[in-house]
Amino acid sequence: MFGFFKSAQPKRVFIEGMDEPIEVANKETILNAALRQGVRFPHSCRVGGCATCKCRLTDGKVKELTESAYILSEQELDQGYILACQSVPKGDVHIAVDYLNTSGPDIKPTQHSGVVVAQQALTHDIMALDIELDAPLRYIAGQYALLSVPGRIDEPRSYSFASPAGQHGTPTVRFYIRQVPGGDMSTWAQGSVMNTQVQVEGPFGNFYLRESQQATSQPILCIAGGSGLAPIKALLEEALSFKNPRPVTFLFGARRQQDLYCLAEIEQLQQQWAGEFTFIPVLSEEPEASGWKGARGLVTEHLDRYCSPDSQAYLCGPPAMLDAAEAQLHQLGVSPDQIFSDKFLDKSNQQKIA
Length: 354
Description:
By secondary structure, the protein is of the alpha/beta class. The strands form four sheets. Strands 11-10-13-8-9-12 form a six-stranded antiparallel β-sheet. The chain has a six-stranded parallel β-sheet with strand order 17-16-15-14-18-19, sandwiched between helices. Strands 2-1-7-3-5 form a five-stranded mixed β-sheet. Helices cover about 15% and strands about 30% of the residues.
């Protein structure tokens, strides 16, 4: 037979430290292939916006779906680094992954059909959706899923789980979807979507509560903004179920009082937490005459009061807020390997959607 009638053969990716290569289908990225075959590849946004999946190409060639120079440094590019989520092999390739995941969540992503069974407006621009799945889905609180609406929104969007799953998974998952101007999924979610069929694939991501380096005494510092509250709340609720006694400080940044939500759930966490639990909502645009007695300004303006150098920090929200918070945490002496971020970014920048 003529060569052009042959179906495309899978390419192989040899990952340094692994005995067997992974197979990559035609037009499939290295990251998608790795996750599909159970490789615990470091990743977060999956759309070229966070550089968590960066790896070093040691042999072979790839086609880059987006320009990696926007996210990788000049030094990294000179050393041959690529983004696994944006790289499609042109043939067999060899890569080296700096932090191949050998601990943490080890749950292979699965695909599920579901139907929207509950819809609740949390604020003027954040909607909560409950989706009943065809089978229980296992995940670790802090991880995210890919959500799509067949026939309407076929390109999946990334959303963090807003509640813990429990040891054996859950048949119903919850997401908080923030309205993004011009966003297909967030515009859809603001409408009447009850009983709509959806597709959910997951779990993905490496955002989860780590063990303490100091037994039960290492402080947990949580910083969230907007719909970034979802994975932080889920992470803490899961820890509560294990009676985690570590002291918690939770700073939540919002514009005005109308942007605060889930306050009853957070109060319940405070009351039931085994150790000390401090919650500080911080409002950046609340009118002076409103009578608000709480913290004002930016979250980063309050970190020096609530952060200690031995803190283990979990950050989730808009990238500008998280970048500023990370820089401040470094200045306050928090070790970089004790800072864990999950940036919620919109599709206009080809990044994770809040």
